[in-house]
């Protein structure tokens, strides 16, 4: 072996040792964190594009008209219930107090999501700023949480009315009703803060196109190139505690309610008791069915087409049906609504 070859081998050995030393240092300290390099390479998203029903370009005007009609009907129906309950002293009871809260909530639901969807459909104004997107997502989650708690409070109200009728005015007095409503709204405004904060700090590198009807959390998480393990874990923990807990309380209330109804000797009494809670039970089934279908499905069962369909039901159909269900199923409210409508027509003609 020549002197030149020995020198070359010695040089290669030094390079190899130096490389291994650097590699060991890299592994020990965890330098040049991959996540930080990725963050440096990602450009910060300043706006998102809401695709909406991009699959049906020729149907955009028709879809705009459909959602505009639904939106106006939602506003009209829920405002009519609020006006009717507030104007008639006979309806100043805890049940109708919670119904007013629910109607106001449905107005908030559609107002948070539908106006932007209408702009997407008719004006092709598909862009939404990052800040506006986070605000829309936060307000939507607030509305969802409020509905969980209000429906639970309404179930408890029906439980007391049917199972403890002699103590109803004592247990469900005005003060208790107001406290239940305030607690429901307050908790709902606080819960999504951590969730939205985590998503807002994520990096979106693959795309800024949201394949949904609004800034939905699941759609944003699919765009994120950051690790979403913490967000997903928080979703299932909050969903289990804050979603299933009200559901379990509602189910327990209805177990007692149904048991009390079956023990009634009078068929007329059973029918009257059931009619007072059937509308609430229908709304509970609709709301929980669609919300769990949208947010608690496993990834293996995820379908964007199904998700959009459930979202339409979630943000428009339920707010539209709620006033119809309560007004048609509740005899007292239906009669008062009819009297109010006739009175307004009479004054207009006069």
Automatic annotation (TrEMBL):
Annotated coiled-coil segments of the chain: none
Domain of life: Eukaryota
Keywords of this entry: Cell membrane, G-protein coupled receptor, Membrane, Olfaction, Receptor, Sensory transduction, Transducer, Transmembrane, Transmembrane helix
Predominant location category: membrane
Pfam families found in the cross-reference section: 7tm_4
Family membership noted in the UniProt record: Belongs to the G-protein coupled receptor 1 family.
Protein name listed in UniProt: Olfactory receptor
Taxonomic lineage: Eukaryota, Metazoa, Chordata, Craniata, Vertebrata
Gene from which the chain derives: LOC115475017
């Amino acid at each position: 072996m020549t002197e030149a070859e020995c020198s070359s081998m010695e040089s290669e050995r030094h390079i190899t040792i130096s490389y291994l030393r650097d590699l060991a240092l890299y592994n020990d300290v965890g330098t040049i964190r991959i996540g930080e390099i990725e963050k440096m390479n990602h450009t910060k998203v300043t706006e998102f594009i809401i695709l909406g029903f991009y699959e049906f370009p020729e149907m955009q005007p028709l879809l705009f008209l459909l959602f505009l009609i639904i939106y106006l009907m939602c506003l009209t129906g829920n405002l009519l219930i609020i006006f009717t309950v507030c104007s008639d002293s006979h309806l100043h009871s805890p049940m109708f107090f919670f119904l007013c809260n629910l109607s106001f909530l449905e107005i908030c639901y559609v107002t948070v999501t539908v106006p932007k969807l209408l702009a997407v459909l008719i004006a092709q104004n598909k862009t939404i700023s990052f800040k506006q997107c986070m605000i829309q997502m936060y307000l939507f989650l607030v509305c969802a949480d409020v509905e969980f708690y209000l429906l639970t409070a309404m179930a408890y109200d029906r439980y007391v009315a049917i199972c403890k009728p002699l103590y109803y005015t004592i247990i469900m007095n005005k003060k208790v009703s107001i406290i239940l409503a305030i607690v429901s709204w307050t908790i709902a405004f606080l819960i999504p803060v951590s969730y939205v904060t985590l998503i807002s700090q994520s990096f979106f590198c693959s795309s800024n196109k949201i394949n949904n009807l609004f800034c939905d959390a699941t759609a944003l998480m699919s765009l994120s190139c950051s690790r979403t393990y913490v967000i997903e874990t928080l979703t299932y923990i909050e969903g289990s505690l804050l979603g299933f807990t009200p559901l379990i309380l509602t189910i327990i209330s209805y177990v007692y309610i149904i048991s009390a109804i079956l023990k009634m000797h009078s068929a007329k009494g059973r029918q009257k008791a059931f009619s007072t809670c059937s509308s609430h039970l229908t709304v509970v089934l609709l709301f929980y069915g669609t919300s769990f279908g949208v947010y608690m499905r496993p990834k293996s069962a995820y379908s964007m087409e199904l998700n959009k369909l459930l979202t339409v039901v979630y943000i428009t159909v339920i707010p539209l049906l709620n006033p119809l269900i309560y007004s048609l199923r509740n005899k007292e409210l239906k009669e008062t609504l009819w009297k109010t409508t006739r009175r307004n027509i009479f004054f207009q003609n006069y």
